[in-house]
Each structure stands twice: as C-alpha cells, then as structure tokens.
Specification:
11 strands, TIM Barrel, about 40% helix, 3-stranded antiparallel β-sheet, about 270 residues, binds NADP nicotinamide-adenine-dinucleotide phosphate, 8-stranded parallel β-sheet
Length: about 270
C-alpha cells in the first residue's frame, strides 16, 4: 500500500507527494508566475501543470533558483503525444520550459483513442530509466482503463488524476486504486467553485468555523485523495493550505458523501 502521512502520500516509487498541491490550469503569464511564487512562500511544495496549460514557462520562472529537491512537480502529456517518440519529445519540451532536469510525476492527460497503451508505457519506462521523470501515472482513466494498462505494462502506475469533489463521488475508482496502491489526485476539488454554494457543505463548514472550500478539501483528503485546488489570489492560496487544524468526524464525512449528487464537470466524451 502507498503510505499516507499527515502531509504526504508515498508513491510506489518511493517519492513523497504532498497532499495539498496548487492547480495551475487557467493561470498564465506573469499572474501564473506570481501565484506560484506566492504559493511557494506560503509553503506549497506540489505544483500541478500540463503541456496544454500554456504556463510551464511561467511555473519554471517561479521555481527557478529554489531548492528543486524540496518540490514535487507534476506535468502531463497530451494524448496526441502518446506515441513513444512524441512522448519523449513532449517531456523534454516540458522540462525545458519548466527549467528543471526531471519531473516528479508525469501523467498521460487523457486516454489515447489511437495509440496502444504498451507504446505509451514503453515511453514512460524510458523516461524513468533516464531519470527524466521519477514516477509515471495517468489522468482521466477509469477502472477499466487502468486495468488495461496494468495488464500490458510493468511500469509502476503511481497515480490517477481524476475529477473528484463532494458533488461527484468516485467510490469505485478510489477502491480500485487503493487495492492497487495507486494514489489518487482530485482535480477540480472545489467543483470549480460550485461547492461554495452547496447548502450541506455550508452547514458542515459552519460547525467547524471553516469555509465550504476548506471543508471540501479536507473531505477529499480524509477520503484518501491528494488535492490540487487552483487559486488566483493569495487569500485563496492561504485558505486552501490551512487544513491541518480540523478533522471531519465520520458522521460529517458520511453526510457529505451521501449527498448522492452526480455533478460531472468534465466529460472527455462530450
Ligand atoms: P477548482 O480548483 O475546483 O476551483 C477553482 C475555483 O475555485 C476558482 O474559481 C477559484 O477562484 C475558486 N477558489 C479557489 N480557492 C478558493 C477558496 N478558498 N474560496 C473560494 N473560492 C476559491 O478548479 P480547477 O481549476 O478546475 O481544478 C484545479 C486544478 O486541477 C487545475 O488548476 C488543474 O491543475 C487540475 N485539473 C486537471 C484536469 C485534468 O484533466 N487532469 C482537469 C481540470 C483541472 P480564484 O481563481 O478567484 O481563486
């Protein structure tokens, strides 16, 4: 099993992924650079980006000159780069933009509809061998998609990054990943701001004197996931990193879980 401590999850490869990261989708240019720099000042050590966010260069400027080994940087390859040589090239370009020698975690952003899983995983194996990435993983993969990968490749799959928030339960994939020691990262953990309006979450939040955003992130962490909320202000950055001083009771975890809402924000088949 991957080991979960108060602040990190130890991946199959031995790397430790901080449970709270900064999501950077839709942050660009100087704003992205400033937000990442502020996040680092606050104490964030886990930054999530992707080649298609158009901000790797800005993230690279923000992390430059810091202690690289204290950071956990995730990036993602487009499915259009799932062929072996394309994956190697895409990763090298991400490393150049990020001004770093290696990624802590490299994910295939979505399943490829055209490239065989074996080929992409062979690319991941080469990237690991050359120490260009420390761990490999997936994003937007269902249980059957992960099963397929596990059946054709020995590359240790360390992570699945999926849409997960209190308005969308993911019990099936959480159970599967737990059984296969695959960590889960919850993307859009605030349902893009929708959790803030939810009455049940607001009620639970009032009990703890916390905000609905903080309760949603805490809920995900207690459900076993890492979280990567995006924040566009220092105020939100601070709030999302300030989750250590409370713990939801079993009843409150269940209360939120039992909302039974199936609010899906992102649908790759849409
Ligand atoms: P999100 O983190 O669920 O929500 C972001 C929204 O919540 C923004 O409007 C933000 O406003 C607001 N917010 C943040 N902190 C808040 C707080 N403490 N109080 C009130 N409002 C707050 O949405 P997301 O950007 O979709 O997802 C997060 C990250 O997941 C992305 O940035 C990306 O890294 C990753 N992601 C991955 C995939 C994938 O396919 N793998 C897909 C989507 C997202 P401000 O901007 O004003 O702070």
């Amino acid at each position: 099993m991957e080991q979960v401590t108060k602040n990190t999850i130890t991946l199959k490869t031995g790397s430790r992924m901080p449970l709270i990261g900064l999501g950077t989708w839709q942050l660009t240019g100087d704003h992205a650079e400033n937000i990442v720099a502020n996040a680092l000042d606050i104490g964030y050590r886990h930054i999530d980006t992707a080649e298609n966010y158009g901000n790797e260069d800005a993230v690279g400027r923000a992390i430059k000159g810091g202690d690289r080994r204290s950071l956990f940087i995730t990036s993602k390859a487009e499915p259009s780069h799932a062929r072996l040589n394309d994956l190697l090239d895409a990763c090298r370009r991400s490393l150049d933009r990020l001004r770093t020698d290696y990624l802590d975690l490299y994910l295939l952003h979505w399943p490829s509809k055209t490239v065989q899983e074996e080929e992409t995983m062979e690319g991941m194996a080469i990237l690991m061998e050359h120490r260009l990435i420390r761990s490999a993983g997936l994003s937007n993969f269902s249980v059957s998609g992960i099963r397929k990968i596990l059946s054709v490749s020995d590359v240790p799959i360390c992570n699945d990054q999926i849409e997960y928030h209190p308005l969308r339960n993911r019990d099936d994939i959480m159970a599967f990943c737990r059984d296969h020691s695959i960590s889960v990262t919850a993307y859009s953990p605030l349902a893009n701001g929708e959790v803030l309006k939810n009455e049940r979450i607001r009620r639970v939040a009032a009990k703890y004197g916390k905000s609905p955003a903080q309760v949603s992130l805490r809920w995900l962490i207690q459900m076993g996931a890492a979280v990567i909320p995006k924040a566009g202000s220092v105020e939100h950055l601070k709030a999302n990193f300030d989750l250590d001083d409370f713990e939801l009771t079993h009843e409150d975890l269940e209360d939120i879980h039992d909302m039974g809402i199936e609010r899906r924000l992102i649908d790759m088949n849409a």
